Input
Amino acid sequence: MVNILKDSWISRKASGERQGWLTAYDYPSARLLDESGIDLILVGDSLGMVVLGQKDTVDVTLGEMIHHLKAVRRGVSRAPVAVDLPSHTYDTPAQALASARLLVEAGADAVKLEGPLPEIIATLTKESIQVIGHLGMLPQHVREEGGYHRKGKSEEEASRLLQAALDLQAAGCCAIVLELVEATLTETISNKLAIPTIGIGSGTGCDGQILVTTDLLGLQPWFRPSFVTPKADLATPFKTAVKEFIQETKGAEK
Ligand code: KIV
Output
């Protein structure tokens, strides 16, 4: 059971297929993504920033993730649904297992967690929980790091990241998200792994890309990460429709 995603993703990678992943936090956007043919929907803890108006992802709770995961699950019949384990819900193997089980019960096909934590990951995969790793810039550590900094610039950091990726694969991960990793290192890691790497702000040398859907659609014009080229500007028709409604309502005769 645990290897369903892993086996299929390894053979898709081997045949040269790339994957496109996006985030969702609610029923309608999950359903639209699923109907559009997306390869995977992630209920990301970016929830904190793009839905809850928080400054980073650090304060998102397991309860909030479960609430949004359930809404997403109802909208999806085709794509796998993955969910982030939020900060400090996987500090020990036992805590990680308890948290991940709650997410699987709420409808997750896989969980994602941040960092070089092969022991935690092996605990979950041994219990048939499918795990996606996340290396490079780790948003749950943004406060200690003092910002969103690119990773893998020095040789030492690059070899640590490559080793971490190999360890995560050995621990049973079915894919690894690489965030803000130097493009050449992304390519090296991708070439060394059998499982797919999914990049965000890490160049084009990975086996797929993931973005926060609101960034892709231009729904939050007040914040755009430098590596995102939005494919739409949905904030503008949104506001135009609202303004038309207001005008029509105020101008309507009684
Ligand atoms: O929380 C999130 O949305 C993520 C991404 C990789 C986009 O972890």
In short: Residues 215 and 225 are 8 Å apart (CA to CA). The mean pLDDT is 97. The two ends are 62 Å apart (CA to CA). Residues 23, 42, 44-46, 84, 177, 179, 200, 210, 212 surround 3-methyl-2-oxobutanoic acid (CB under 6 Å).
